[in-house]
Structure formats: C-alpha cells, structure tokens
Amino acid sequence: MTTERTEDNERNEGTGRDADHGEWLEALADGEGYALVCPEGHGSLPPRRVCPECGSTSLSREPLPDAGVVETFSVVHVPSPGFADDAPYVNAVADFGPIRLTGVLRGIAAESDAVEIGRRVTATVEERATDGEPLIVFRSIGER
Amino acid sequence: MTDVRVAGVGLTRFGSHPDRTGRDLFATAALRAFEDAGVPRIDVGALHYGNFMGALAEHQGHQAPLMAEAAGVRCPATRYEQACASAGVAIREAVRTVRAGDADVVLAGGMERMTNLPTGEVTEGLAIAADDLFEVRAGVTFPGAYALMANAYFDAYGGSRRDLAHIASKNHANALPNEYAQYRREVSVDDALSAPPVAEPLHLYDACPITDGASALVIVSEEYAAENDVGAPVAVTGTGQGTDRMALGDRDHLARTPAADDAADAAYADAGVGPDDVDVAEVHDCFTIAEVLAVESLGFCSTGQGIGAARDGITTAGGDLPVNLSGGLKAKGHPVGATGGSQIAELTRLLRGDHPNSNYVDDAEVGVAHNAGGTVASAVVHVLEVAE
User: In this structure, which of A10, B130, B188, B248 has its CB flanked by the most CB atoms within 10 Å?
Assistant: First the structure.
C-alpha cells in the first residue's frame, strides 16, 4: 500500500497517543511490524510524510523480517527514572532489513559477557518493569 | 566579507554552584568577557546565547532577554537550543552576524544549570536530546547512546576500555592547572578502569560530570578592533555546521560522525586550512569515545585510528597535536549550553599565550574547536588563527 499523504488524510485516528507511532507499535506487538520504504529502497519508521533520505513522498509499508541482527549493545546501569526498576538492562540496536530498531534485549543476563554483536533476535512489544509503558523488546533466536 | 576577531573571553568556574541562578552565572561570564575585551557594552549589536535545559532546570524559558539584562546590553537577543552544541551554534551565528555587517560587536556564549536537579532528572533531561519515540522510550540514556557507539566502534575497528581510559587520564591531567576546571585531580588509567559502570562499556571516568557554568565571548569585526584600538589577536577564520539523522540507529554507520565530518570540511574550506595545519584542538569529549570520533572527523586520524591517539601520546599535552588542553568536557566540566563557548574561550587563551597550558603550544598558529549535539546529529566546528 502506498500512503501518499495529503491534508485530507492527515491523521490515523483512534490509535491512541502519537497517532501513527502508536499504530506502528501495535502492529509490531501483533507480529506485523513494518517499515516505510521509498522507491529508492530507503527505510524509515512512522510517522513520516517524506523519505528522510531522499524526500520521496511515495512511501510503502513493507513487513519487517522475522529476525534481526544485533549491531551494537550496552549494559545500562544508570537509568532514567522511567527505567529505574528495569536496570540493569541490555540496550541494543538491531538490523531489521530496511531499518534498524533500538530496544531492550531480554531473556539473558544483563552482563556484557552474556551478549555479543551478531546475535539473531526477534522484535516485539512488552512492558517496562518500572511503569508498564510499552517497550520494544528483543529476544534471542536460539544460539548464535 | 568582514574578518572576525575575538576581543574578549569570560568564564565562570565550572562545577557546582548550588546557590547561584543561571542569570548570575551568565552575568559573571559576560562581566569577565567585557573586562577582558575593553569594549563598552553600548557598542554591542546582538546577543547570541546558548542554553539547553533551562526550562527543566530553572523553570525558565525565553532566556535571551533575561541574559541581555544580566549582561547589561540592550540589543536583539536570541537563544539557541541545539542540545550540547547550543553555544557552538550561538558562536557561529555571532560570526555570521559580524561577517554580514549586521553588527560590529556581538556578545555570544551560553549557560547551563544542572546540579540543582537530582541525578535522575538530569539523566532524563539529557536524554531528551535523543529521539523520544524510538530511543528514549527504548531506554536509551545519554551515556547509553555513546556506549552503543563505543561497542560498535570496538566491533568495527578494535580498541578497548584501556584505550578510552588513556583519554580520561590525559584530560584530567590537562585540567590540573586550569582555574576554571571542575575536576583538578589526576585520574590514572587504572583508576578509570576500576570505576563503576554507567553504561557498559563506559564507566564513571569515561563520562563528563554534571556541571553548572557559563561562557561569554565578545566577538568584533577586524575594523572595529583597529579603529578602537582593541587588542584582539585571535581571529575566527572558519565556521562550519553539519546535521545527521537524529537517532543513532538511523545513521549509515554506528561508529562514525558524518555531521562532524561535514562541519569540519566546511570550516577548513572557510578558513583555507586543512587538518595538517592544526596545532591545537578542543573537542567535544562528553564521553571518552566521543573524543575518538572527533579526532577522526577532524582529520587528525584516519577512520579506526583515533582510538590510539591518546594512548600513543599524539594528543597528550606534550604530543604533536594536543587535544583538550583545557581538560575537555571530561575534566573541565560540561555545562551543556555553555560548552561550545567555553571551547572557543579556552582556545583563544591557548593561542594568546595566557592559558595555564599555553606553554605546551608556544608556537601554535591554528586551533580548532569541535562542539557536538546529541550523538552528533548536530556538529559545529570553528577554526581560530593567530592574526597578530
């Protein structure tokens, strides 16, 4: 589907706060995460009206691959107040084809030695331990 | 085009000033800058002022008129918010104002008050320089973001925590004689390695402190300095600015800073110099890894080689190209919205010969300042040269 956006179609109503972002997060939670991709192949995440790389207004929704690859990570010991009860936690950036996602890697010890770059992960939405807010979470797919 | 000179610089001591308002801090820096310049306030045609989180820290928006009052000037006054590069862009706009002929004398600088907030609120406040939807809500803190860059760097090019510890140790040593520095104590490589973790691989001494402080500069046209017999031996000959995607994960590479590459290229071209001409640099070392990325973007080291620059003695005080002789953000302190102005003030002092570390750069002619915002989604680079 191409979402050529005009003033007549300004908002996706009814998706909670932050409109397009909320809708995207719900899709990711349902296992239907997507990227917005322009004809040049640049990926981005909503809300977008133009491709941030080339300015194309022709953005199509493309499903994210089932698995991503951890490109970098950090074990966070000093959190923001919103993550007080989550710390220590593993923050990671993972490659999911046209885009990267930033999230928290769960299901392993929050120790540098327990994580490695190149680990294959899924992406879903879970709750923050601290306040129940939605959180992008990575979980490992088997062993590397 | 009018040539631009630094007529005077003023700084507060960087550190904890729990009893002082932001307006008083900036007033102090401005007072010192006017004393240093010997320029009457009535001649000031514009104030360009940087501040990042004043609305959170002091419940104070609309700070530019307040700071004009505090400095005793009445002129068009504008606040710039560009995260940690706020004062860098304020200085850049001061340079552009003078070059355009809009004013012969401009007051520029910045102020940040941070230590009056609990650490958690500062952590949260600094994090808002990142992408709220895709980074902050994913648990990215300011140290955490640079930690992600550090591990990406290690993976791509090699290097270790020990290499970063050499940067911390170097910058703490440089801060020892600096009367404006927050931390005037030595930190050894082993001290840095054994400090508690903040966001691994970064530990306590990889991170700059939380700091209150202000910086101010009196920037004038070359003609004004000559006509009014104002001593202004240091010229700003180059300015450049770059922008990248906001979120780290959206960048082409997780361990490079192309916004700073672009800012450096523009500033060097503007000044007609290159990296080989640079004798001394102040760079944005909010975290040790940031200094690595900075010296690569500025062309002092090739990509993947910056990690060894401090360890190998290239960027130490006695090295070929001393970096952060002020102590850097790391040891001098990082009052976010004041830092870009402080870097120019310190470089000016180093080039004039009145900095406590000027003896390391006796013959220096060309200095570079590198100021970055967020995870270098914004960068500003200036070239300063001894003109007289």
Answer: B248
Instruction: Give pLDDT, residue A14.
Output: 41
pLDDT for the residue B11: 98
Orientation of helix B119-127 relative to helix B142-157, angle to 10° = 60
As beta bridge partners, residue A70 has A94
The pLDDT value given to residue A15 = 39
Terminal-residue alpha carbon distance, chain A: 35
Every domain of chain B and the residues it spans: 4-117+209-381
**pTM of this structure:** 0.96
CB atoms near residue A122 (< 10 Å): 18
Q: What are the C-alpha distances in Å from B368 to residues B101, B151, B240, B296?
A: 24, 27, 11, 13
Size of interface A-B (CB pairs under 8 A): 107
pLDDT tens, position by position, B17-48: 989 999 999 999 999 999 999 999 999 999 99
| ipTM, interface predicted TM-score of the complex | 0.95
CA dihedral B293, B296, B301, B303 (to 10 degrees): 90
* Residue A17 pLDDT: 60
pLDDT band at residue A143 using 50, 70 and 90 as cut-offs: low
Chain B, 140 to 159: residues with Cβ < 8 Å from chain A are 140-141, 143-144, 147-152, 155
For domain B4-117+209-381, say whether CATH 3.40.30.10 is its number: no
Distance from the Cα of A67 to chain B's closest Cα (Å) equals: 17
Which among B133, B148, B247 has CB closest to A74? Answer: B148
Helices (H), A62-105: none
